[in-house]
Each structure stands twice: as C-alpha cells, then as structure tokens.
C-alpha cells in the first residue's frame, strides 16, 4: 500500500514569501519530516482531506506515492500548511482537492510551494445544480425508495464519467487552477459533499480519471480499482438505506455539531433540526439567539440526541443538550470532517477508511435512536 504522511496545524492560513519560504523549505528538506516514501518512478500524489486521501489510495494502489495533508481529527476549515507540507506539494505530480469552496488555503499553498502539476477537483464529478438544490433544502427529510437511491448513485458516477471524457487534456493543469478555483468557489453549496456515498462515487470516478490523465500507463489499473470500489460504495448505500428505512419517519430527526451531514441526511430521509454551530464551518460561534432557537427546535421536533463531530469539542453540545433535556452523543463522535485515526473502529470496520467511518456514523445514530443496526454484508467488513 502507498505510504501516507499527515501533517496538521491549527492556525489562520499564511503565505510564506521570499527568503522565509526558501529557508523553511530548506529546513524541511534537511529534516525529511514530510517525506512521503514509496518507490521511484511512482506518480506523486497529494490529497487534501482524509476522505480524499482514502479515495486516492483505493484508486491509486501501489502505482502512486500518496501524501495526505490533513491528519485524522483535522478540519480543512482551519488548516494551515506547514513548510513540510509545502515541500511535498511542490514535488507532487498531482494535487487532489475537494473543491466546492472547502479548501480556502489551497491557492496560497500552491503559490508558496511552487506546485505546477495537475489539479484534480473531486467536486467536478458531481452535478453542481443538484448540490445547490440539496443545500437549499436545508437537509429536511425526503422520501426515497430504494430504486431511486440506486438511480442517484448511478447518476453521480455517470455525471463524473461524462465530465472526465469531455475535458481536454491538461484542463486540470496548474496554469488554469486559479480560474477553476474561482468557478468552484460555491458560496451557496455545502462543501461536505463526501458525506453521501452516492456523491463519493462521483468523486472517486473524477479522481480515477484525473490519475489516468496524469499517468496513462496505469490508466486501466486506476479504472479497474475504481470500479471495484464503486461496488463497495453501492453496497454501503444499500445497507445504510435499509437501516434508516427501519426507523419511523417521525423519529428520523438529527441535530449535529455543525452543518456537515447535509447530503447524508438528504439521501436517507433524515430531517435536519439544526446544528450547534450555525454554519458549514466547525469554527463558527453561535449567538445566544442561535442557541435559544436550537433548543426550541430540539424540543419541537422531539430530537432524542445531539451528535458531535470528531473535529469539535463536545462542551457546547453538552450545555445545549442539558438545557433541552436530551442526550449528547460525544463518547462516540461522528466522523464528518475527518476520518478516524489508524486503529480506531468498531471491530468489523475501521474508521480510518471512508466506508468504515460511514458505517460507524450510521450505527451511532441508529443506536442513539434505540434501533439495533443489522449485520454488514461481507463486502463491507474488514
């Protein structure tokens, strides 16, 4: 498997310039702290989020040398690349980003590192109008029969495939990156697009196409691995759909730490009663009026529990839950902005993978609602 290096700091993004940048990169080079490892001749790939790093590893296998910028528990909302990160980025052949306005640090990081490879924007594998529509709906519950769920899953993959084949060679090159980032800075789109396994399929197809363009000699291998992973994502979607169909519609109501699960809630008919932080970001500050409104919403909707994402402190959630008279689920946090650390998991799954984290999230929600999850299919275990 490709070696993965993670680095993270929590601070406001800053661009190093001139002599300071040169000195920082020299120091990082001498220390070797950002070495990604891997064999010579491999495609050097850098991915921003932990989910994208997992997707890239699933598709790239041993044909890529993979580095993930964000560490488990980290959040792209307040990420600041270190000099070691910039060194690795400057040497990369491919940079994989989420897009949809998530990585506000990426333009300055590219400029500071001197990166001139190809940029693959995973959000390009999805329909932007559909993302806007779901964002505008506010995460309210929708009735979806299973045939429709499979249709959505296939649609995401088909959209991505069509997009990949329509692009001219080199469209993701660094020279065009600034214009692309402007095009994909969707202030009206919730950037947590990966939380839906159906969206994940389109993102993975975009990544496979991008790696194939950058490394044509292994394009068939990337495509084959992607197809195998699509089967797992489809099995995941089928399992999650079946679990929530067992919960009465009036009980499928959720409050989260911040507005991070919008697409997951939409796909599985779960009503969004609000979030502790009234924002897409996990570092916003709620006002007293925001807190009062959320407590009122919790009581009005009969919410059973408040869930906290792994990238957030549970303190405010505990205060709100206490005031509303409900449980706060913080001992087993939901993995939204980040995957878990290696070794974390529920026995038959590991939360350091996208599939494992999604299974974990589903189980935690069900159990808080008093519903025992059904066993996983063999294809999702391990």
From TrEMBL:
Q: Where are the stretches annotated Disordered?
A: 140-197
Question: Any stretches that span the bilayer, and where are they?
Answer: none
State one Pfam family annotation.
ZnuA
Q: Where in the cell is it found?
A: Cell envelope
* Organism, as annotated: Leucobacter muris
Q: What is its main location?
A: other
Q: Which Gene3D superfamilies match?
A: Nitrogenase molybdenum iron protein domain
InterPro entries reported for this sequence: AdhesinB, Bact_metal-bind_prot9, Lipoprotein_PsaA-like, ZnuA-like
Q: Which residues form a coiled coil?
A: none
Q: What's the protein called, per UniProt?
A: Zinc ABC transporter substrate-binding protein
* Alphabetized UniProt keyword annotations: Metal-binding, Signal, Transport
Q: Where is the composition biased (Basic and acidic residues)?
A: 140-189
The protein's matches in PANTHER family, at most eight in alphabetical order, are given as: HIGH-AFFINITY ZINC UPTAKE SYSTEM PROTEIN ZNUA-RELATED, METAL-BINDING PROTEIN HI_0362-RELATED
Enumerate the SUPFAM superfamilies for this protein.
Answer: Helical backbone' metal receptor
Top-level taxon of the source organism: Bacteria
Any keyword Signal?
yes
Leader peptide range in chain numbering: 1-36
């Amino acid at each position: 498997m490709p070696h993965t290096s993670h680095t993270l700091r929590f601070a406001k993004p800053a661009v190093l310039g001139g002599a300071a940048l040169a000195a920082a990169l020299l120091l990082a080079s001498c220390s070797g702290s950002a070495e990604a490892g891997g064999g010579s001749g491999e495609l050097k790939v850098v991915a921003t989020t932990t989910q994208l790093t997992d997707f890239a590893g699933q598709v790239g296998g041993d044909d890529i040398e993979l580095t993930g910028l964000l560490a488990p528990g980290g959040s792209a909302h307040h990420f600041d690349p270190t000099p070691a990160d910039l060194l690795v980025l400057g040497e990369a052949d491919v940079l994989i980003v989420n897009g949809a306005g998530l990585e506000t640090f990426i333009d300055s990081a590219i400029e500071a590192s001197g990166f001139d490879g190809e940029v693959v924007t995973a959000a390009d594998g999805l329909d932007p109008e559909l993302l806007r529509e779901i964002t505008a709906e506010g995460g309210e519950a929708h009735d979806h029969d299973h045939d429709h769920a499979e249709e959505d899953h296939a649609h995401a993959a088909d959209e991505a495939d069509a997009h990949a084949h329509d692009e001219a060679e080199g469209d993701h090159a660094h020279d065009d990156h600034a214009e692309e980032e402007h095009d994909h800075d969707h202030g009206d789109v919730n950037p947590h697009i990966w939380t839906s396994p159906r969206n994940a399929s389109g993102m993975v197809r975009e990544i496979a196409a991008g790696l194939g363009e950058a490394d044509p000699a292994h394009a068939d291998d990337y495509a084959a691995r992607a197809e195998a992973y699509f089967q797992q994502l489809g099995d995941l979607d089928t399992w999650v759909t079946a679990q929530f169909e067992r919960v009465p519609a009036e009980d499928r109501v959720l409050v989260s730490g911040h507005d991070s699960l919008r697409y997951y809630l939409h796909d599985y008919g779960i009503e969004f009663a609000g979030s502790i932080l009234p924002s897409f970001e996990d570092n916003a500050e709620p006002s007293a009026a925001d807190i009062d409104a959320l407590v009122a919403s919790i009581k009005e909707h009969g919410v059973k529990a408040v869930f906290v994402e792994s990238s957030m402190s549970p303190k405010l959630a505990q205060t709100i839950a206490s005031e509303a008279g409900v449980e706060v689920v913080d001992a087993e946090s939901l993995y939204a902005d980040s995957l878990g650390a290696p070794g974390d998991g529920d026995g038959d799954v590991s939360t350091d993978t996208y599939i494992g984290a999604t299974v974990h999230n589903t189980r935690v929600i069900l159990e808080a609602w008093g519903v025992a999850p059904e066993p996983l299919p063999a294809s999702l275990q391990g």
